[in-house]
Amino acid sequence: MQGFTVVAPGILSLLQDAGRFGQQQIGLTNGGPLDPFAFTLANRLCHNPDDHCAVEISIGGLTLESSVDTYIALTGAKLGLKINGQKQPQWQTVAIKAGDKISIGFATEANSGCRAYLAVAGGFDIAEQFGSCSTVSRESIGGLNGGPLQKADTLPCSASGDLDLLSLPEEQQPDYPSQVSLRVILGYQRDHFSKVKQAIFFSSEYTVSDLCDRMGYRLEGPRVNADIDGILSEGICLGAIQVPADGQPIILMNDRQTIGGYPKIGAVFAPDLAKLAQLAAGGRIHFSEMDINEAHQELLLAQRQLSQLNLDKL
């Protein structure tokens, strides 16, 4: 089988496409990339459709060996990319020859992010399960074996003909600060949080705890308890902010459960979740309130800007 052989799998490397949709009624969450912008740009730099399968690399340490001539791109966190020991740029198309060793470093610097995306020309050829190849380890679904990449795995992909080398201009590359502001759309359960608790929530700083993963980010900071301990379990949206009995918010991410019974103060505006996903434990967060109509307008604007984004030819 042609493709890339995993020499070292890194801390957490997962195959992801754009996500698994329309399956929550049977208990399957959507998965997909935690940083959709970096994921999309990795594919575009490889001349792929935006939803092609790529590798999401958390923290770093992935090493691959290629058996095909092709092209790759690494975007997202500043992990460092080397081909046969030679440094290569991120946010740019890079030519690969059969026998080349692709090494990705670790997130060791502040303000450098913690998740990167490796795409290959044509995408990785991974069988879909329930309409997607996205890996959700909690559900043992997607990817090669329903979990993270392992040493000696083969990531199948085809050889590629000549492609134009592309790059995303540096001024358009995102920053990954260790302190972020997240916009929140308050939900119908807001009335279970007193005006004082809401004021505390929007005026305080929270810290990402060690309990942060693709399922959710548990925060540490001032308590914002609701006036009820729980609700009848209901569907949960991406970015929902649950508040359990200890009063410490939990922001639910791509691999969240499909239903839950904790009260929710609101939901993080979806495009802001990428900033959260690039935070490691210890990252600092402030919240601001966002009107639902403003959210619709901002979402349309973000989608338009992404569709009009131009890549430079090298």
UniProtKB/TrEMBL annotation:
<dbReference type="InterPro" id="IPR003778">
    <property type="entry name" value="CT_A_B"/>
</dbReference>
<dbReference type="Pfam" id="PF02626">
    <property type="entry name" value="CT_A_B"/>
</dbReference>
<protein>
    <submittedName>
        <fullName>Biotin-dependent carboxylase-like uncharacterized protein</fullName>
    </submittedName>
</protein>
<dbReference type="GO" id="GO:0005524">
    <property type="term" value="F:ATP binding"/>
</dbReference>
<dbReference type="InterPro" id="IPR052708">
    <property type="entry name" value="PxpC"/>
</dbReference>
<keyword id="KW-0547">Nucleotide-binding</keyword>
<dbReference type="GO" id="GO:0016787">
    <property type="term" value="F:hydrolase activity"/>
</dbReference>
<dbReference type="InterPro" id="IPR029000">
    <property type="entry name" value="Cyclophilin-like_dom_sf"/>
</dbReference>
<feature type="domain" description="Carboxyltransferase">
    <location>
        <begin position="25"/>
        <end position="306"/>
    </location>
</feature>
<keyword id="KW-0067">ATP-binding</keyword>
<keyword id="KW-0378">Hydrolase</keyword>
